[in-house]
Amino acid sequence: MKKEKPVFAHSFITFVFVMLVVFFGVLTPQVPAAEKTMVVSGHPEYPPFMWREGDAIVGVGPDIFQLLSQELGIRIETPYLGNWEEVQNKARLGEIDGLVALYYSEERSQYYEYSIPFAEDPVAIFVLSGHEFPFVNWETLIGKKGVSTLGDIYGEEFDTFAEENLTIERLKTVEECFQKLIDKEAEYFVFALYPGLYAASLYNVNDQILPLSPYVSVVQWYIAISHKSPFVSLMPQIDAILKKLIEDQTIENLVSLHSQKWSKDWQL
Length: 268
Prior knowledge:
About 40% of the residues lie in helices and about 25% in strands. The chain has helices spanning about 5-25, 60-70, 85-95, 155-165, 175-180, 195-200, 235-245, 250-265, and strands spanning about 35-40, 45, 50-55, 55-60, 75, 100, 110-115, 120-130, 145-150, 165-170, 190, 210, 215-225. The relative contact order is 0.18. The chain has 2 domains: about 35-120 and about 220-265, 3-Layer(aba) Sandwich (D-Maltodextrin-Binding Protein, domain 2); about 120-220, D-Maltodextrin-Binding Protein, domain 2 (3-Layer(aba) Sandwich). Strands 1, 5, 6, 7, 8, 9, 10, 11, 12 and 13 form a 10-stranded mixed beta sheet that branches. A 3-stranded antiparallel beta sheet has the order 2-3-4. β3 and β4 form a beta hairpin.
């Protein structure tokens, strides 16, 4: 004769299951309702991937988020919220949901969930015209005074080397960095190649500032969502959408489109 399980066993199993669902439901960020808005921002001086236009951040990164918005069924806002360091702090604290584009570092990964990489970005050494020096490798920079912008990194290997061996002053804006070169208070400026060329034209110093070769590094761009954002649970879907946008060359076309736009606007 088949034994029946006691009623209390069924009840206990059900109780445990319900408690696990509740427990993990509390710990796991919930996918937001469609009427909610994801707020992401970015670097105000980093075209073609992100830059400031009025009160908004525009460029490749924000355009990717608008495509994500259509696929995910959520609203996206990309406001200008200050300099790059200030924006990153807001994302770390969960005051905004994430960043439209970000280089990877282990330290940063404590605060953000990273997407798959979606583009590459060369980093260059900018100098004052007439004050060029042979740039062979990173060791060339030892003993020289450099500048860069607050909150920027240029690949973990170079960043570690710079911290241990180089003298680099961090300033709030690209314009300040250029001025240091012009005033001969710095010998080089480490910055991403394309934003640096854009900024040189924007501030009318493109006849005074030039990049050296070879590149310092080539880094990759990622989307970053704050670990404190409820939208972090959408990262698997974001990765899947990004993969499609890479494969069908949508992102490559956006990079080309925005590169042409700002190079035409600023006569690069």
